Amino acid sequence: xxxxxxxxxxxxxxxxxxxxxxxxxxxxxxxxxxxxxxxxxxxxxxxxxxxxxxxxxxxxxxxxxxxxxxxxxxxxxxxxxxxxxxxxxxxxxxxxxxxxxxxxxxxxxxxxxxxxxxxxxxxxxxxxxxxxxxxxxxxxxxxxxxxxxxxxxxxxxxxxxxxxxxxxxxxxxxxxxxxxxxxxxxxxxxxxxxxxxxxxxxxxxxxxxxxxxxxxxxxxxxxxxxxxxxxxxxxxxxxxxxxxxxxxxxxxxxxxxxxxxxxxxxxxxxxxxxxxxxxxxxxxxxxxxxxxxxxxxxxxxxxxxxxxxxxxxxxxxxxxxxxxxxxxxxxxxxxxxxxxxxxxxxxxxxxxxxxxxxxxxxxxxxxxxxxxxxxxxxxxxxxxxxxxxxxxxxxxxxxxxxxxxxxxxxxxxxxxxxxxxxxxxxxxxxxxxxxxxxxxxxxxxxxxxxxxxxxxxxxxxxxxxxxxxxxxxxxxxxxxxxxxxxxxxxxxxxx
Length: 495
Prior knowledge:
- By secondary structure, the chain is of the alpha/beta class.
- Helices cover 37% and strands 22% of the residues.
- Helix 1 packs parallel to helix 7, helix 3 (82-93) runs antiparallel to helix 6 (181-194) and helix 4 runs parallel beside helix 5 (156-167).
- The chain starts with 6 loop residues before the first strand and ends in a 13-residue tail after the last strand.
């Protein structure tokens, strides 16, 4: 029998009040049931929020360096269990072991970074305009955070949100994706083992309509941190506006890699293969477009198509596998629908394009790595997020045209330019409209100590990662201490 799992509310593992459950299955072998999880609803969210609100009053008073000590302990446990966590994650969402090991490492890095921030939640001191008066600004925690995370980075992204939230003195209600509840449960178990007090972290499993909506509209949740689609992000923004919650949205992308005629073509080829087909293209930073200078277009495409056709699909636990499955049947149907859209629009299919069958693939949601040539900038496959192993290739004549094509979407998350010309590199850095720009590196590969996020409809201006995420999870309080012993009238004309 598959193992049965529960919600974690106020330090106790409990079933959903409805008694309903859902199955968690392996996308590489849909016959394999990983576990049974609670299908929760509003009542479960209410209990979790109540527990988090109560715990906040004590947790906010724990010194930040002490909270940092717990973060360090979490990192130590994750280091010891890294291989186990990676294998569990591959079974649950499909990407290859090398990538899930990286996913865990991202969580480890985030834990250790958060640990150091416990001694570095810096405020500011400034001179007062009046004598014998001291002025400063300090950071204070906000309250209860609603954390809603996707399935493609089931360890890294929750740590990006939860670790800085609790290090800053907040408590959280965590709703992981229904495709990856096991990794999320294990993460909560690790946090409890490391010493997080009861009520500080609560996990409620279930769907977006039931659990997600209950979190975003809850009057006693103070902030929301969400990663997912732009459509859902817009709805969350509307729901949260009634109570003026602070909201951080990390949403879609339609990222492009530009390759100029002076680039190292072998390096650029390795980059686009990794950027487009790593994680089966299921990253918000995946390389969905390739913009090639006309002078190297034919040569580059010939090699790219050949290399793509040789990529090995399979179970991510197998050492030879380079590309795993789509996360579920619905995601594969979306990929296939865009293959049909591209063909109808007149793009030329030069690699892949079909559901992958045979060789042990029939029980999973596998799709061939796919390349469209002769794509024009206004085609849907050049402008809409697909979130799968589909690459659209566009021909351009200059750097200026390439940048204009790259910017020609509603998104602005990640970007990449391959060139040996430092002048072109800096023009690209200046003119590309994206939150991340890589030079001679693919569009994927963010590091835990730098800001992560995008512009336009990729988000709402906040950043995750590094020092910037702590601005989201804390409030600034201005403090004035007057030791003059007399009334000094500020904001009066004293000159």
